[in-house]
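Can you please make up a whole protein chain along with its backbone structure tokens because I've never seen that pairing?
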Amino acid sequence: MAGTQITGTGTGTVAVVTGAAGGIGAALAEALVEGGARVVVSDLDEQRLTATAERLGAVAVAGDASSEEVIDAMVAAAEEHYGPVDLFFANAGIGDGYGLAADDEQWQLALDVNLMAHVRAARRLVPGWVERGRGYFVSTASAAGLLTQIGSATYSVSKHGAVGFAEWLAVTYGDEGVGVSCLCPMGVDTDMLRSGMTSAGGEGGKVAAAAVTTAGEVLAPRDVADQVLRAVEEGIFLITPHTDVREFLRRKVDDHDRWIRGMQRYQRQLKESS
């Protein structure tokens, strides 16, 4: 990316990771700490977050990742303990809301956590990175943000928004020292996939979870985290731990109507087997 000074992930790097009580976020924090980075972790689940932070030797800031006050608190904690933030991992996500039955509150929550949390964090950090001439923003989106999420309109739409915002951020600030990566995996062995979708979404949630687990291998969070950090070191924008995602995206772009018909067939199969 022309003009971007790549920010390392190792010794001395100051990083903030949201959604870090477990799953991909905890794995990212673990990999960063092992590489010598100094890390602030955040999550809404204070009890699990505290346990993760104590295990890793990280600083914990509990709260809603989409809240400007909590984002300010994360940055302040990093600056107080370590120094200016070099890397921000906007990793917190939510999968609530299935089909047209999702109400406005569920839509707003999905948009806040899956998209606006990224916007607000970038608004807080990017101007300072431009002044310093370096900084790196990592957006955890989803393959759903490139393709779609059968069963959940709120997840699909908000993750499309996250991908779009990450692209815009990279285009707009790449020549000013700001690096951006966007993580778009399919199935990862997290609480959201194991129980979050099915418990919150009923039949729609079961279909949504099955659409992920039957589409390809379910990866371990640490395997995904290691790929993310390698991509950041190399300044790669689109991170697709599941290699099939790029082929699925190519098919979608080549013939959108054919792709939609294929997804309709896939949805029918999932409903018939659920």
In short: The mean pLDDT is 92.
